[in-house]
Amino acid sequence: MSTMKVIYRLEELAVEYPSPILTIGNFDGVHLGHQILMSDIVARAVKIGGTPAVLTFHPHPLQVLAPNNAPLQIQTLRQKLATIESLGIRLVVVIPFDMQLAQIEARDFAILALCEKIRPKEIYVGPNFAFGHRRSGSFNLLKEIGEEKGFWVGKVHQVQFRGNRVSSTSIRQALLSGQVGLARRLLNRPYELEGSVVHGTGLGTKIGIPTANLKSPNDLIPRRGIYATLITIEGRKYESVTNVGVRPTVAGGDAAVLGIETHILDFDRDIYGKDAALEFLFRLRDEKRFSGIDALVQQIHKDIANSRRYFHHLRRRC
């Protein structure tokens, strides 16, 4: 399969990407609904000999227009592009979103960016699609322009889970409330943080339970608590248990800095400075303050045992 091409300037588009079958959106998280849409794009492109393509924006428009109201992003741009590539998309156009772009009227954007640069054969959009200055451009406007300029425009149906629409908002709510299992179903994969392993206080090593401290660029960190996790280092996954929190027993509680500490089961290697990815599978408990180090260590051993039981049952189901 061809490697996906990512371009950040419309002027870089080349003729080697004929008849784009395009979808447009922010695609925050590339969740189950996005995945079904992009899989349909790929299937359609294969059928007519076109190029499955995605047009997206970075940063999220609200991060420019109303930073205080901007949603926490579910993925970094790197994660988003990797997920899109895994779905078989061959071309992604990432348009830098700024105040100048925000002022472009919907019809002008459609003509200048779509018709003159990308030249799509077909465009498919989601049920809440809007574009252009103040989101004034609708599906009907895009369809009207398509009829004028010679491309077809279609709307996809909402994807639901247990009677509710799958959305980036519902995934954010699930993660912020600690429901990583629900988030996993809506994303069709475990929620993942990426980052690098950095030095911590060294307490874990002192008490015989060493941890890898993850420094992550991700916006959205799941609710404070203890989780069964998988950590990927140098291409290999390891079973683990992770604390997301402020270490109230040893660090003074809520005033402390939020940390992501992972104890890797049956693992003894120096991984400082290594890149890592952390997948959240199951929430074990809330973070809480203990009477002292001995009580904390006792609970950590219980958390490790519960995590082992979770992975044992997980392997039996597979």
In whole angstroms, the N-to-C terminal distance is 28 Å
Major pleated sheet: 6 strands, parallel
The geometry reads as elongated
Beta content comes to 25-35%
Summarize the amount of helix as a percent range.
25-40%
Can you tell me the residue ranges where pLDDT is under 50 for at least 5 consecutive residues?
A: none
Main-sheet strand order equals 1-4-3-2-5-6
How large is the count of helical segments?
A: 11
> Could you tell me the number of beta strands?
14
Supply Rg.
22 Å
Chain-averaged pLDDT: 94
Question: Strand-and-helix sequence, N→C?
Answer: EEHEHHEHHEHEEEHHEHEEEHEEH
Overall SS class: alpha/beta
Overview of the molecule:
- The protein is built from eleven helices and 14 strands.
- The protein has 318 residues and is of the alpha/beta class.
- The strands form three sheets. The protein has a six-stranded parallel sheet, sandwiched between helices. It has a six-stranded antiparallel beta barrel with strand order 9-10-13-12-11-14. A two-stranded antiparallel sheet has the order 7-8.
- β7 and β8 form a beta hairpin.
- The two termini are 28 Å apart.
- The mean pLDDT is 94.
Indicate the topology.
Layout: E1 5-7, E2 20-24, H1 32-48, E3 51-58, H2 61-65, H3 77-86, E4 91-96, H4 99-102, H5 106-118, E5 122-125, H6 139-149, E6 152-155, E7 160-161, E8 164-165, H7 168-176, H8 180-187, E9 191-198, H9 203-206, E10 212-215, E11 225-233, E12 236-245, H10 248-251, E13 259-264, E14 275-285, H11 293-317
